[in-house]
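Data deposition worksheet. Section B asks for the primary sequence of the deposited chain exactly as it was used as input, without tags or linkers unless they were present during the calculation. Section C holds the resulting structure in token form. Section D is free text for depositor observations; keep each observation to a single sentence. Incomplete worksheets are returned to the depositor.
Section A, Depositor: J.P.
Section B:
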Amino acid sequence: MTRSVSLLGSGIFFIVAPAVVAGWVPWALTRWRLQPAFLGSAALRWLGGALIAAGAVIVLESFVRFAVKGLGTPAPVAPTQFLVVSGLYRYVRNPMYVGVVSVIVGQALALGSVVLLEYGALVWLSFFAFVVLYEEPSLQRRFGASYESYRVGVRRWWPRLTPWQPPISSMSTR
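Section C:
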């Protein structure tokens, strides 16, 4: 797959998946109506805004990285040709999912929405099940020792404080 095709496919998948999960569904649930702030705290609204911004940057950077470095898309039907372990992937194995959940939790805090907090928990549980039941076994089969080394060195959800360095012999990673 070429970079151009990867970028196009990633763009289409972005509209189909994260834009719907972290954009359309939260809007459908709340119509972006502001509720009283949690604990009456304006600081939580600001924290929500920061989570939205950070999560959006994380998701966008990860999508571009998959296309440019991995030569593929985040969609299971058009996966990357190479195991992507650069950029944010040096800190956490699933930055896209972390970013999407951050956007949803940020919206919940910014809007004071309990229903979005509940939705965010449901999305995270869905991501967790998908990663454990499908994604990790698939990556293990496709990339073998390279993925195993990465899996051991980088946590699934909680970022490392320092970037992981892949072994020199990992030729199928980018």
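Section D:
The first helix runs from residue 3 to 16.
The helical segments are 3-16, 18-30, 42-68, 95-111, 114-153.
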